[in-house]
Amino acid sequence: MHGSDVEPPAAPDPPLRPIARAQDQLFAAGTSSREKYAALVVGRRGLPALLKHELVVMLAQARPGAFGLVLRKWLYPLLLGSCGRNVVFGQNVVVRHPHKIHIGSNVVVDDNCLLDAKGDSNRGIRIGNGVFVGRNTILSCKNGDIELADGANLGFNCEVFSASRVTIGPSVLMAAYSYVIGGDHDFSDPSAPVLAQTRTSAGVTIEEGAWMGAGAKILDGVTIGDHAVVGAGAVVREDVPPHAIAVGIPARVVSTRTPQRSS
């Protein structure tokens, strides 16, 4: 066999990143309660950053009615990394590490949502133009990044968790109670509690135009191809090809959507 016919060995998978634990900050010795609160919620040191955050929360976060909507439209952008035009923040929207949250224009973040960009070295949360984030939805970073591309629509009570990178592409539709799990637990040692073992993350990608049915769960390391459909209640632990329809627990591909050709 000629040397040129020998294929080079495949590159090893990138190492999985450990997931940061909030408890390590919350109960860290040698820091004051104010410093712990600022580290977990504000994400910036110093009294001015803390006071600005608390003032905006006190004046606007829980304020009901149209007056509350106007206050949040004016005041929340003061905390964020960037914010476009015509952004609606519902009542009781909570932002953590808000300087790492970037929001485009014509976006709705409905009541009781949590946007948590927490982390020491991550970029945080980026929400594109025309995105809808439904009521009670959680975007939660643990030193990871979350990106919602233009036109993405997340229904009520969804959760997107990231300890490395979760990307939700343009015009993706996630129905209510969908869960994207960009993190995992190592349970290889049966003699130790799972909670005490390493927690890791490989990330999740959901490509353009995909649809997650109600209650679908996308596990760590999965890619959902463009215009694929995941059935309601499915648990996806392997990649779903573009235009495929996957259903069940665990999810399996049952058919393919044939793209329509323009005449």
Spatial order of the strands forming the largest sheet:
2-5-8-11-14-19-22-24-25
**Sheet with most strands:** 9 strands, mixed
- Fraction of helical residues: 10-25%
Mean pLDDT: 89
Q: What do we call the CATH homologous superfamily?
A: Hexapeptide repeat proteins
Unreliable segments (pLDDT under 50, ≥5 consecutive)? 9-18
Explain what you see.
With 263 residues, this protein is an alpha/beta fold. The protein has one domain: UDP N-Acetylglucosamine Acyltransferase, domain 1 (3 Solenoid), CATH 2.160.10.10. 17% of the residues lie in helices and 27% in strands. A 9-stranded mixed beta sheet has the order 2-5-8-11-14-19-22-24-25. The protein has a 7-stranded parallel beta sheet with strand order 1-4-7-10-13-18-21, covered by helices on one side. Helix 3 runs antiparallel to helix 4. The radius of gyration is 21 Å and the shape is globular. The N and C termini lie far apart (50 Å). About 4% of the residues have low confidence.
